[in-house]
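Async update (no meeting this week)

Hi team, since we skipped the sync, here's where things stand on the single-chain job. The sequence we agreed to prioritize is pasted below, unchanged from the tracker. I ran it this morning and attached the output directly underneath so nobody has to dig for it. Comments welcome in thread, and please keep replies under the output.
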Amino acid sequence: MKRKDFILNTGGLILGSFSSTNLLANIHSSSNLNNQINFGVIGTGSRGQGLIKLLNEINGCNLIGVCDNIPFRLEEGFSLIKNSKKAKAYSDYRKLLDNKNIDAIIVSTPLNTHDQISIDALDADKHVYCEKTMAKGTAATQRLVKKGKLTNKIFQTGHQFHSSKMYSQLVDLINDGKVGNIISIEAQWNRNGNWRRVVKNPSQEREINWRMYRDYSYGLLAELSAHQIDFANWILDDRPKKAIGFGGINYWKDGRETYDNTKVVYEYSNGLKATFTSLTANAKDGYKIMVMGDKGTLTIYQDSAWFYPEGQYTPKYGDVDGVSGATTNWSQSKGLPLDLIESDSNRATLQALIDFRNSILNNKIPLSNITTGANVAYAVEMGIQAMDTNNVIEWNDTEFIL
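Output:
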């Protein structure tokens, strides 16, 4: 798209920020959508641009508005719309929400803006797909949950595992007793890189690299581990009751404020412990979840899974390094690859957007909804508090409103 065409489509809107007061509540039912839903995307950074590309593939989803308060991001996002002649670009999300032709919006902005934009969208009578983590902190999550109880609009949280065919199969296997009684969960999401994005204009450092700064984000726990926490909650049909953890800025000495390594352990109702690790300076095994049960261990990777049965172990004892009675050998079964529907993050996200469309058309609560999203948001808050204070943080029923 030529720059002059982009400028014409912006409608001459003034650059705005992502903070505002609530719009007047408007929670009446949508008019007949005729299986066609008009979308707006708020936040056209890398994630928002990926979602725009996926929306272009879905029948019945018409993208007619995009918004960002960083001009080059807005132009990039607008250029990706399949039928941009019918779309408008906005630099103030409140102007996008004023467009009565938009039925649903996607929130893919920095974490600290999720709650206010989502609340304003619900007040403007829009359905909402809010990227993970749903909200930053207890107060923001409280506000959004309270608003969700007052609206009849569809709200879906962007934890796309709930829409993944592979993960649905894995949940069914676990529920059918494949691993037996779950006794532990070990999850990691490790990378080797500074996680930074290129910034051409230094004045935009915090806006573009918002994941590095506490005002905007909770970093690794919220941006990566949150997906795995959501999966643990799903298979356990529970939410964490306690959290302990450690985090630090120990490798990347570059002015960042969010931890470059995190390790948080959550305890669930039955005493089960689930550990979530994220590193930025070692990528061994990358992404992995181990669901450990008394019948075996399910090891899950990005697009595959293996099962390691417990089998019949035959321990042998002897003197090892002068320690009498130490185990010298175990006879153990090897892991078996599982025949699963192939999965990847883009396919799961595409299905999540399709599920959002279908939930709107069928007036059905999504599997990844405001309650499951809140459970993860509160768990992330517990983990952050545990790492910040070196204390055990417990679930607080008086603050964690559901």
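Quick observations from my side:
The domain at 163-342+375-394 is CATH 3.30.360.10 (Dihydrodipicolinate Reductase; domain 2).
The two ends are 45 Å apart (CA to CA).
Reply here if anything looks off.
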